[in-house]
Amino acid sequence: MINEALGLPELASEHGQLVDQMMELLNWFIAILLVGWSTFFVFCLFRFNRKANPKASYIGVRSHASSHLEIGVVLVEAILLLGFAFRLWGERVDNYPTGDDTVRVRAIGYQFGWALHYPGPDGKFGEFDFNKVSGASPEAQIGLSREGHGADDIIRGQLTLPKGRPAIVYVTSKDVIHNFAIKSMRIAQDAIPGMEVPMWFTPIKEGDFDIVCGQLCGSGHAAMAGILTVVPNEKFVAEFEGGGKEAAPAATTEVVATVGN
Ligand SMILES: [Cu+2]
């Protein structure tokens, strides 16, 4: 209820329900704290004003009510952390997708955009060649080599994923720290140069969802907005996995890569 009032983007991933539940609880908890402490503050303004207390008390409060309140707050926070946050985290870590239907994509952040790198029909990512790096296109940004496994790789400026299949996005950066954030999937991961960190989720709704850069990364930070398009599986297989045909050896595979947005 509070989530909707705060304008949380549409939920479109399998695990997102748990994230929303936790946010809903936290928002209620914070709302109660806000009302409680604000009321107490206003009460103090009147109860301890100069007129009611012409002479200052050097002893102060003797009741332990505030300590008990504080202990209560700590307890509720411990329940939130141990009961909900840890459970959510445990579920995330335990459910790392390993099945054959898992989609694998690399997301490389650069100033200022994202290159989405699909392994193509052979299911294997190509290598990189530093001599090919330039700013001409998302493909040139990462300097993909078209030799070997890279021959059939597909590079896009936007992300496309199939509905209902677990997806692992390996997030990294070419230059500074970015953050690959897809709010509707309730997921975000820092893109750190030199590290490739997997983040995974299962889209459960077709449609277009916003991707943003979640780390202030320079003057073009706001331009790093992208779109995740969730499509039916058949469409994804036809476009990114060679139509489900047996992968041909890389050397003879036709180059199906398209460049740009
Ligand atoms: Cu960025």
UniProtKB/TrEMBL annotation:
GO terms for biological process: ATP synthesis coupled electron transport. Its main location: membrane. GO terms for cellular component: membrane. Its EC number is 7.1.1.9. Signal peptide: none annotated. It comes from the Bacteria. GO terms for molecular function: copper ion binding; cytochrome-c oxidase activity. Gene3D superfamilies: 1.10.287.90, Cupredoxins - blue copper proteins (2.60.40.420). The keyword Cytoplasm does not apply. It is a multi-pass membrane protein. The keyword Membrane applies. PANTHER family: CYTOCHROME C OXIDASE SUBUNIT 2, CYTOCHROME C OXIDASE, SUBUNIT II. This is cytochrome-c oxidase.
